[in-house]
Design a protein that fits this description.
heterodimer, A: 407 residues, alpha/beta, 14 strands, 13% strand, globular, B: 143 residues, six-stranded mixed beta sheet, 4 helices
């Protein structure tokens, strides 16, 4: 299972930590950050010695974009003159109808975003001082010698993602825009290196969309089921996502752009990769992309696959020591969920996520279902000793177990 | 009978006005700090020092279960933690549940406050307690 980890501006120090670097495979960079903090992000990414991918975040420029932020304007600049003009100075709300994306506009958008991604490594030639600074910071954090890499040694993105738009159903107006985007991508050089991205309103749409993805583009296919929250989804939805993955994973490397432990378990059904942030972004609504920002501090209880406010987590674990985490962060002298620093909460989460991936890889589906049910029992026992209003809802563990083994 | 406070802020205001002398003296009144960040993004409605103890108070107009839950979490930051409600909200169920979680219960009257159940002294996390004390001192310096 390939683990993609989302980069945020508050995560730089965490991405230099050995535990975090060891816990994932590919860093995913939001296009808004890459565009707005252009030089700093490029310097960080290109000096990081990490595989990376840039998410073009094009659903931002779909239907209503209320009070565009400076980062939206920056990304619009990458997408070409038409989108840039539509966004304007960024003061007023703007609207992108499907028919805004005419063939000429789609050409601008595809050329702009594909070239931007493909040429990203070339940015290193213009930012040498910043590159050197970030390399020094990395070496200092890892306790190594500074590696001097020539500008030509900077690596390109691991994947080049096509522009994409959210669809409510296959065949709707935005689906047609996506099809025209793919057709335009197929005219670019090396189309088989451009990955289609599916952003769909539900698991039923996911299956229909996966069936219609063109074969000219890369087999590495990314998807986002908007509003699909693994812990809130009912059993029918969970099974539908599982079945869509199982049905279309043959010959495709499918990656869920927003996922958690349930997605990790879907490795057994052919899911190739999943993406999350450092203790955030396991699900994402559309059109809520405009309202993202720094996540609140949360503690991840790995046995329960659940985030809780740090003090509440402390209370739950105090009630049931079987929930204690044995990672180096949590066994440090005096460490408690309620007293960990923000960087330590992230480091703990990265270690917990790595443990989850190893757990899923080394156990059968039936064993994972058993683990989930046992965790539910353990968690409920602990929760029963807390006031009712702060008891965590752990029913999702049984739903996941049922969905994994359902016929 | 005096009417109930119309808002939680009003309840806290009445509580604080009586707490100064209840937990202090006429010549050395206690100095409750209001709405101080306690842990994470949570704030404690009122907090004060008395006889070397750091005491926290969660006030609610009606939702006593929520008040107990918040007061319970506050035991990780303070030495003693209370639920604070208008006097006519007192019930056996409220007091019983508060006792189960080591939380005290305090009734607010128009002219006084009354401890219905004393809070147990707990073992807050030293780091959280120290951070709360520092924030209270900051508030005191500003007022």
């Amino acid at each position: 299972m390939r683990h993609f980890l989302a980069y945020g501006n508050s995560d730089q120090a965490s991405f230099r930590t050995e535990d975090v670097r060891d816990a994932f495979d590919v860093m995913s960079v939001p296009g808004t950050i890459a565009a707005y903090y252009a030089d700093a992000t490029a310097a960080f990414v290109l000096s990081s010695d990490l595989d990376y991918v840039i998410d073009p975040r094009t659903p931002l420029f779909q239907e209503a974009l209320a009070s565009p932020r400076a980062s939206h304007v920056s990304l619009a600049n990458v997408m070409g003159a038409s989108v840039r003009s539509q966004v304007g100075a960024g003061e007023n709300s703007v609207y992108f109808a499907p028919d805004f994306y005419s063939d000429p506009v789609i050409s601008e958008v595809v050329e702009g975003l594909v070239n931007w991604q493909r040429d990203y490594a070339g940015r290193s030639t213009g930012i040498q001082p910043k590159l050197d600074r970030y390399r020094s910071l990395l070496a200092e954090a890892l306790g190594t010698e500074v590696e001097q890499t020539s500008p030509s040694g900077s690596r390109p993105p691991e994947f080049c993602l096509s522009p994409y738009f959210a669809v409510r159903e296959v065949g709707d107006e935005w689906w047609t825009v996506n099809e025209r985007v793919w057709a335009r991508c197929a005219e670019e050089a090396q189309p088989a290196t451009i990955s289609p991205v599916l952003c769909v309103a539900g698991p039923g749409v996911l299956a229909d969309a996966l069936a219609a993805v063109p074969s000219e583009l890369s087999d590495a296919t990314f998807f986002w089921v908007t509003g699909f929250d693994e812990r809130r989804a009912n059993a029918v939805t969970l099974v539908a996502v599982r079945d869509a993955v199982a049905q279309f994973s043959d010959g495709r490397r499918l990656t869920n752009m927003y996922g958690g432990f349930y997605s990790i378990c879907l490795e057994h059904f052919g899911l190739w990769g999943f993406n999350n942030g450092l203790a955030y972004s396991e699900s994402r609504d559309w059109p809520a992309l405009t309202t993202t920002g720094a996540a609140p501090a949360r503690y991840y209880i790995r046995q329960l696959h659940l985030f809780m406010p740090p003090v509440a987590a402390d209370a739950l674990i105090a009630a049931e020591p079987g929930l204690e985490c044995p990672c180096p962060v949590c066994v440090a002298p005096g460490a408690r969920p309620s007293t960990l620093s923000y960087p330590d909460l992230k480091r703990h989460f990265a270690l917990a996520r790595k443990w989850e991936i190893e757990l899923a890889e080394s156990n059968s589906v039936d064993a994972l279902a058993g683990h989930l049910r046992q965790s539910k029992t353990l968690g409920d026992s602990a929760a029963s000793r807390m006031p009712a209003r702060i008891r965590p809802d752990l029913d999702f563990l049984n739903r996941w177990a049922s969905a994994l083994v359902a016929d | 009978m005096a009417e109930r406070p119309a808002s939680e802020a009003e309840l806290v205001g009445i509580f604080v006005s009586h707490a100064k002398t209840y937990f202090g003296t006429a010549t050395a009144p206690a100095r409750p700090a209001v709405e101080v960040r306690s842990h994470g993004r949570a704030s404690i409605d009122a907090c004060l020092h008395s006889d070397g103890l750091l005491i926290g108070f969660e006030a609610k107009l009606a939702d006593w279960k929520r008040a107990i839950a918040q007061a319970y979490l506050n035991t990780y930051c303070v030495d003693q933690s209370y639920v604070v409600m208008w006097h006519d909200r007192m019930t056996r169920a409220l007091v019983s549940e508060a006792v189960a979680y080591g939380v005290g219960v305090l009734a607010v009257h128009p002219d006084r406050i009354e401890v219905m159940e004393a809070a147990q002294s707990g073992s807050p996390r030293p780091e959280l307690r120290s951070a709360l004390v520092a924030r209270i001192r900051q508030v005191e310096e500003l007022t």
